[in-house]
Amino acid sequence: MSYETIICEVENNVAVVTIDRPPVNPLNGQVFQELADVMDELDRNDNVRAIVITGSGEKAFVAGADINEMASLDVVGINKSNQQSRSAYSKIENVNKPVIAAINGLALGGGLELALVCDLRICSEKAKFAFPEVGLGIIPGGGGTQRLQRIVGQGVAKELLYFGDMFDAQRAEELQLVNKVVESEKVVEEAKKWAEKLTEQPPVALQMVKTAVNTGASLDLESGLTLENHCFCNAFVSEDAKEGLTAFSEKRKPVFQGR
Questions:
Q1: Closest by alpha carbon to 188, among 58, 22, 47?
Q2: pLDDT band, residue 124 (cuts 50/70/90)
Q3: pTM of the entire structure?
Q4: Which UniProt keywords apply (predicted)?
Q5: Which residue, 49, 69, 113, 249, is most buried by CB atoms nearer than 10 A?
Q6: 113 a catalytic residue
Q7: Which of the following is catalytic: 34, 113, 190, 228?
Q8: Active-site choice (11, 34, 125, 133)
Q9: Mind listing the pLDDT tens digit for each residue in 1-54?
C-alpha cells in the first residue's frame, strides 16, 4: 500500500514506520487512518517480526494533534475523530508483533499517547514530553488519562495531566515512561538494534507475552493467571517451542520459524 503521511520501510524483518508531516508531524484523521492501515498490513506480513515507529526530522516525534483540524470540528466530528484515534492506537497496541517507539524529539499530547501504546520506548536525550491539553481547555482523548496512570501511578499521572508542564528525557526515564535514553543521532539506530534482536526471538512466544501482559493489566490476579496459563499452553504447543527445547538439549542456537 502507498501512504501520504507516513513512510513504511522493511529491512531485516524490521518495519520502520515514520510519521512524515514535518516539521513537527502533527496527527490528523489521515495519519490515524494510515497508521491503522499500515498496522493491518504489517500484522499480515510474515516477513515482519518487529516494528519501529518514529517521526521525520529531528525536531519532533509527534508534537500533538493537528489543532487546526480539531478546532473546526463540532461534537459529532470530535467524537468521530476520537474513535478514529482510539482505533489506530488500539491496533498499534495489539498488533501481534513488538512495537518500539523511537522518540526523536517532542512527544506532546497525542504524540505521547502514541508512544504509550508502543511496547517499548527509546528516546533522544533531547526529547521533551508533556500532556498540555488542559491549558487548551480540553483533556487527552486518545487514551492518555488511562494508559499514563497504569505506568506512573495515579498521583504522578494527575500531576502531569493537571499542570501540563513539559519534562525532559531524564524524568521520563525516572518515571519509567521510557526504557532507555540515548544520544540524539542514535535513537532510530538503537531502536532498530532492539527490533533486530527481537526478530531472533520466537514470534509465537512474543505474541503470547504481549497478550498476557496487555490483557492481564485490566484483570484481577486469578483471571490474569488463568490468561497466562492459556497463553503458556499456546506457546508450548508451537513448533518454535519444540525447536527451542530441542536446541537447548543439543546445546545449539535455536532457529525460530514463527509457527
A1: 58
A2: very high
A3: 0.93
A4: Lyase
A5: 113
A6: yes
A7: 113
A8: 133
A9: 689 999 999 999 999 999 999 999 999 999 999 999 999 999 999 999 999 999
